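Database export, one record per block. Field names are fixed; values are copied verbatim from the stored entry.
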Amino acid sequence: MENMNQDFNINNDDDNKEKKNKKKNRILKGTGIALCAVLAGGLAFEGISSASGWNFSNTVKASNTEENRTELLKTKKKTEDKKEETADTAQEPAEEPSETKVKGSLDVSDIAAEAMKSVVAITTKSVQEVQTYLGDFGFGGFTTQQQEVEGSGSGIIIGQNDEELLIATNYHVIEGANTVSVTCIDGEVYEATVKGYDADKDLAVVSVAVSDISDDTMEQIQVASIGSSDDLRVGEQVIAIGNALGYGQSVTTGIVSAKNRKLDDSGQADENSDGVNLIQTDAAINPGNSGGALLNMNGELVGINSAKLASTEVEGMGYAIAITDVSDILENLMNETPRDRIEDHGVLSITGTSVSEEAASVYDIPEGVLVAEAVKGGAADKAGIQAKNIITEFDGKRVRSIDALVDMLQYYEPGEEVEVTLQVLGNGGYEEKKVTVKLDKNTNKAADASETKESAQPSEEQGEQSILEEFGNGSEDDATYEEFFGDIW
């Protein structure tokens, strides 16, 4: 009996030692991981915040400035977590993934309260030509006059460095804006600058100088955590937050109705479109929601809402740009040099007209701006741009119309060198060519909007029409086509 007791005590001691060793190893392992995180220059978060219940345990990269580049605050994809856990599962009992633990533990109000710190309202002001009726003065008919127009949208704080707070939104929210301002969660309004944009993807980044932001505001805002739109499943619950109708921040909820949707410029479904990948949701997305956040139930940003794609003919069908597909684009825009509109901006010294998507399809020519004439001795002429060349990119940005090119030029100084991408006809087809243009000074002292268009095309009236209208009033016309382009095949 005594021997049995001794054996039991010995075994018990061995078990205790083994447990202590395991515990020690786990502590050392955890300390090592934390130390590695600190040495790597990242931010280490421990579990779930006791104050907010927010889980940061799977954060892998913080928004910081490394090699003078600001990056997004991203979380791991589920596939990455599974790869890292494979080695541990062979030695230790399997544990429930952190995503499963958190999912469902926060309700919509918890997520909204935290996410609203990262969402801002955007207000723009622009000068536009509006029609007015002269009947009151006894003349009859219409004329146009300039009028200041205010617009509203939403934005998401996606980065911060020592100098700037960086906010993502849709390009159509800030398109043509003379001034941009953002309103943070505390109601404070700050002037913003367009940092960069990609009109083709309907994305833009605006920046606010950190020196302009009060300490109180800085304490209440935060950078959004970027999730993986690839991990979304059809039927999964999502939350939309934005400045609906310009009334201030509001929250709607729904499910993921479909993934990998693509639409053409008219908003019609087109799987062959080169447009950005979209998430379809039945969460209400109204005017003013554009540029706002679509969140998963972990509170992570998975999409950028776009009310531009909404239709009054349907109900319960909204769209958001899938965040994973555009994260690289956003990081590039975050690190562009910000530009302000310039009154005496540079010009290309060309005349031209738009090649619309429809005209490009009908006549099998590239979409962009068809150069009708390059003024002799002007900026374009000196760079080798000739009549019948088609401009498809300006400073790396896609050009789809004469109006888009006109808008881009208003951010560039005379004398500034800009790379222009052309499609040049020859050898039986179009070939891409890149040239560097040193912009001319705009010598036309008329109103800013009209002077730019006159520098880019023969007249404003012609600029409103695409090349399709010129070629046979909207239908294919081989004779007109040959007359315009000549025998150059």
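Remark 1: The CA atoms of residues 349 and 488 lie 24 Å apart.
Remark 2: The first strand starts at residue 59 and ends at 61.
End of record.
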